[in-house]
Amino acid sequence: MRRFSSALVTALKSSQVVYVGVLGFFLLSRWGNASGQTWTNNGPEGGVVYSIAIDPSNASIVYAGTRAGIFKSTDGAGSWSLAIAGLEGSSGYALAIDAVTPNVLYAATFNRGVYKTVDGGASWSPINDGLIPYVISLGIDPTAPTTLYAGTFTGQVFKTTNGGRAWIEASTGLTTDNYITGFAIDPATPSSVYATTQGSGIFKSLDGGGHWNQINAGLTNLNAYSLVIDFVDPNTLYVATFGGVFKSVDGGSNWMPINSGLTDTSAFVLAIDPTTTSTLYLGTFSGGGVFKSIDAGLNWRAVNTGLTNTSIAALAIDPVTSTTLYAGTEGGGTFQSVNAGDSWNATNRGLISTWVSAIAIDPKTSSLLYAACAEGGGMFRSTDGGGSWSPITRGLIDTEMSAVAVHPTTPTTVFAASYYTGAFRSTDRGDTWNRITNGLPTGAVTVFAIDPVTPTTIYAGTNRGVFKSLDSGDNWSSTTRTDAVSVLAIDPTALYAGTYSQGVFKSTDGGAQWIAINDGLTNSNIQSFAVDPATPSTLYAGTYGDGVFKSIDQGGNWVAANAGMGHAYVDSLAIDGNDPMTLYAGVGGGVFRSSDGANSWALIPGMAHHVNALAIDSSTSTLYAGTAESGVFVLR
So where are the chain's domains? Predict the structure, then answer.
């Protein structure tokens, strides 16, 4: 249902050696002592917003559930701040608000069960007695809000009648092991509960979850994600599926499609106007944006003016002023409409939930940075050393970005890559992009490496091996390395390719021939790679679950170099270009630093996020860390 790409990034460039790791290209040089320095986080703003909840007693209070946790706004989404005390490390996959006591809020976290706040998000506590961790959906009884339902991605439903103090399983009759994607509760008869699923359609319970029956007659697509009930006539239901929208007028016994006007039938989320039940809004997942119907679903029209991200994950309507809407997107953060969908504005000030795949620094203007963001985030640029970021997506076909590289001698030229649509090039620092895929295979480009001696020669790591261009990306041809490539590194004499399952390969003839260099490597899933710029025979490989390995003979033999780090998942590696004994490793819990050539490691305090990308600015001794859920952190 959700897309969770495993963006794994590292790289470095010195005056003679370029090292590029998975999904990125980074300038790395002098880095001083971390003592006394602090992490800051200023973007890029936006990211995936899974859920939105509005305080029914004060519509200026809005909550957004994201990969980074819960954000709260007290000014109608004018600005956001994190509200995660006690919730650290958990996402806000689904939200449910107590309409009677709106300071009480529940959050489903995907892998840590359900959390509850009784003070409007100021603090959270787990409420998982009797519950399994894998909760992705919540339903709250509008008449008795201490009664909730929790759905899991393993096809189970749990119920509490005491506000989460204890849960019991309520799955009898559910014939699915698929995601329970949502709930709807009949406001007139709350013992009537509906559950939508991914792959098994809709289930209905007439006894508050005691027993469930499948109600799919007329449905032609069983990937159901959102169901809403007409509160005037509760027998009238609408459901969003990946086959469009269906309607029932008999409590779900029969369904009929209502897709007139829909140009995208990947229907994902529905919202019904609380004052006029014939008005509905639909969010689509595959890029169609938001659609609106004013005739109970008979006809739909797109209402996307101002939406710069049209993959919609959440919708919410202001309960008091129903012309005010909020949309949560897959990568673009939140948008607000104050005119019933006629136009939208991004409302992401302070909301940082971006997945950063790669970072690159302009080699001549170090305050100029680029960030490639996955999960629909797109490309961003900062002109003030990460103090602020602006989107730069003109010409990009999609926004699932995997890599970025800056030309070492002509930095107005920037390369970017997508998980789905290949490689792009800009000659104006990202203002506009052109696709450069002639000869590249269909699918993901995960990493670039630019030849430091002949910069018109560029290599691309893809899901079908290493490809090479001799003309700055205009044309590509395959090398003989055809494994899915996770990381590339290049120096004037050798090209290295790390793979997801076959270890490390080396070429000394521009990719014409490759040899495996894996002796001593006990883990062949290579996620990051670095070459010592002063002593190129010294190599470092970051693995998926076994930390860092080191070779001092160009890969002839490897030994583990993990003291202080253990068996970490090392997604990024960086070497200080001026002091090659100093290395950095990005892992699931922050950044490790070694000052003795990886003989020992210590965690840099103050930032515990999953780090995909690392970059160092030598002129200001600034470290940039791109994370999987909270944008770019800067350590100065």
Answer: 11-43+354-635
pLDDT at 576 over 90: no
Question: How far apart are alpha carbons 348 and 45 in whole angstroms?
Answer: 6
Query: How many angstroms separate the Cα of 245 from the Cα of each of 15, 72, 196, 220, 286?
Result: 57, 31, 13, 10, 14
* pTM for this model (two decimals): 0.86
Whether the CB-CB separation of 629 and 355 falls below 8 Å is answered with: yes
Q: How far apart are CA 215 and CA 455, in angstroms?
A: 61
Of 451, 401, 404, 393, which is closest to residue 421 (Cα–Cα)?
401
CB distance 206 to 191 below 8 Å: yes
Question: Residues 486-500: pLDDT tens digits?
Answer: 999 998 899 999 999
Model pLDDT for residues 442-467, shown as the tens digit of each residue: 878 999 999 988 999 999 999 899 99
Residue type, 373: C
Would you say residue 412 has pLDDT above 90?
yes
DSSP 3-state helix, strand, coil percentages of the chain (rounded to 5)? 0, 40, 60
How many residues would you count in the chain? Answer: 636
Strands 369-374 and 378-382: antiparallel
pLDDT at 36: 64
Identify the burial level of 35 via C-beta atoms within 10 angstroms of its C-beta, where 0-12 means exposed, 13-18 middle and 19 or more buried. exposed
Q: Quick one: which of 584, 579, 586, 581 has its CA closest to 597?
A: 581
Neighbours of 475 (CB within 10 A): 14
Look-up: residue for tokens 């950095």? 584
Q: What are phi and psi of 356, to 5 degrees?
A: -95, 115
Phi, psi angles (nearest 5°) of residue 316: -150, 145
pLDDT, tens digit (0-9, with 9 covering 90-100), for 316-350:
999 999 999 999 998 899 999 999 999 999 999 99
CATH superfamily placement of domain 11-43+354-635: YVTN repeat-like/Quinoprotein amine dehydrogenase (2.130.10.10)
The answer on pLDDT for 395 being more than 70 is yes
